[in-house]
Each structure stands twice: as C-alpha cells, then as structure tokens.
Amino acid sequence: MKNKISINIKISTVILLVITLFSLNLKAQNIGINSTGATAAASAILDLSSTTKGFLITRVDTNSITSPAFGLMTLAPTDSCLYMYSGISWMDIGGVGTGCINRASPVGVTGSIASLDCAGATITGTLTDGTVASGVSASVTYTGGNGGTHLGQATLSSGVTGLTVTLASGTFATGAGALTYTITGTPAGDGTATFALNIGG
C-alpha cells in the first residue's frame, strides 16, 4: 500500500514540475532552438541554428490563406515561388519557379545604368480608385546600361497608396534601353501614385 501511494506522489510531483517548467518557457522573451544550448540572439524572438539542418517554411498557396498578417511568408507549391504579404498584397520575393523573381546573386557582370527617365515613363492601362489594377504597366527608359544583370525591384506607392510596382530580374541593354514595371494592387483614392525606383546603381 505504501508503495502505491509513493508512486502516485512521484507522478504528481513530476507533473507539477513539468507544468511549472512549461509555464516558465511561456514567459521567455526570445527562444533559441539549436543543438549547442546557445542563448538566442537578443534581437530575435526565435533564433534557429544548425550546422546540418535547414529551416522548412510553410508550403501553401497564397489564395488559400484568409486574412494574411503583414510579413506572413509562404512557399507556394503551385509555382515554387516564395511570397511575403506586404499588408496590401502578396509579394514574390524569389524562388525556383520560372515566374519567380530571382534574388540570388547575379551571375556574371553586376548591372548598372547611368540614368533612369522616370518623368518620361509610358503608362499602359488605367487605374481606378477602389478597383483592382489589371494589365497596368509603366515603361521607363534608361541610358548607360552596361549589359549586366539586375535583381529587379518591388516597391509600394506613396501619395495614392495600395499599389505595388514590380520589375522582374533581368539584364540591362548595353547603352539605352527600357524597363517594364508591372503595377498591381488597388488604389486607395484619387490623385498621384508615386513609386521610388532604385535600380542599376
């Protein structure tokens, strides 16, 4: 009989100890997951490190996610592109699919241009307040291209918000050329949407 009571007390003590340790972990300011026991970096809420394993991100298509949070990321299985939600729309931030923006280190010559003529941009399509942009683009000419590669660009609008302009990665022409930016999103009002373009140095 004492033996049975003693076992029950030990089990209760172990359960109480596990609950106490679990509640202490819930109050942690940052978490480190590693095989070395290293402390998490102070600026990170989650610090993962390994010399033999990688981080596996969620794999779900963006259209399957309702009410995405700003900064949410996923690897979409249908096109093998990595996406991040900007608070307005999903942004392609790279991947191995044929339509993905390639943000890996450029191969060969790093591209540069001498000047970008934003004032002379040619806009194709129409933007309407509160209506999702479809088939809208801007062609911007440049001079002084060196024939090197660029990583593309994506930036949000100011003035009239709700829009994103995206340039896929590619190669500058030698000399003069043009870049075609795709405009997506829904304009949040009437007026002028401004995009800060920074490409080719």
Poorly predicted residue ranges: 1-26, 103-107
Neighbour order of strands in the largest sheet:
6-7-13-11-9
- The count of β-strands is 14
Q: What is the alpha-carbon Rg in Å?
A: 25 Å
What does the average pLDDT come to?
Answer: 80
What is the tally of helical segments? 1
Helix content: 10-25%
- N-to-C SSE string, H for helix and E for strand: HEEEEEEEEEEEEEE
Any idea what the shape is? globular
Overview of this protein structure:
Helix content is 12%, strand content 35%. With 201 residues, it is mainly β. The chain has three domains: 2-48, no CATH class; 62-95, no CATH class; 115-194. The strands form five sheets. The protein has a five-stranded antiparallel sheet with strand order 6-7-13-11-9, with no helix packed on it. Strands 3-4-5 form a three-stranded antiparallel sheet, with no helix packed on it. Strands 1-2 form a two-stranded parallel ribbon.
Give me the secondary-structure topology.
Layout lengths: L1 H25 L4 E3 L12 E3 L24 E4 L4 E5 L4 E6 L19 E10 L11 E11 L2 E2 L2 E4 L1 E2 L3 E5 L2 E2 L2 E12 L7 E2 L7
Parallel strand pairs: 1-2
Antiparallel strand pairs: 3-4, 4-5, 6-7, 7-13, 8-12, 9-11, 10-14, 11-13
